[in-house]
Amino acid sequence: MNSMVSNNNEEVKKKRGRRPKSEKVAYEINKEQSKFFVDLSKETKSLKKIQDLLLKANNKTHGCEVIFKDLALYAISKLTDKDIEKVQEASLSEMEKVQRSLDEYNRKNGLNLTLGEYLLKKLNIN
Q: How far apart (Å, rounded) are the C-alpha atoms in residues 71 and 64?
């Protein structure tokens, strides 16, 4: 038996192996994490933009060096809920966008169409 519930302390043992694609995993933040690393080795445009910003920020006669951390913390404080929504939207794959559209359509119209039925209806294919 892969999945068991113990009666005395309500422990749930998780199944081992790959999880199904349909299973949603709740994101949990590790509050103990204090270091974050950004690898831009494959994102040359972003790396160039950051380097240009650092050059501009350090083109001064007084004060200590402005580092990436300074820019990141300042920029993070300026993020709005709309910015977060844009980042969330950009994180969706094409199929996740289609699935979201299907879920919204089913909810709005009180239906329970499958993905295939939904695509046939939307593409107007008989």
A: 14
Q: pTM score > 0.70 for this model?
A: no
Alpha-carbon gap, residue 4 to 14, rounded angstroms: 8
Per-residue pLDDT band for 27 (boundaries 50, 70, 90) equals confident
Please spell the DSSP secondary structure of the chain, one letter per residue. --S-B-TTT--BPPPPSPPPTT--------TT--------TT-HHHHHHHHHHHHHHT-SSSSPPP-HHHHHHHHHHT--HHHHHHHHHHT--HHHHHHHHHHHHHHHHT----HHHHHHHHHT--
Half-sphere exposure of 30 (CA within 13 A, CB side): 5
Distance CA 16, CA 3 (A): 9
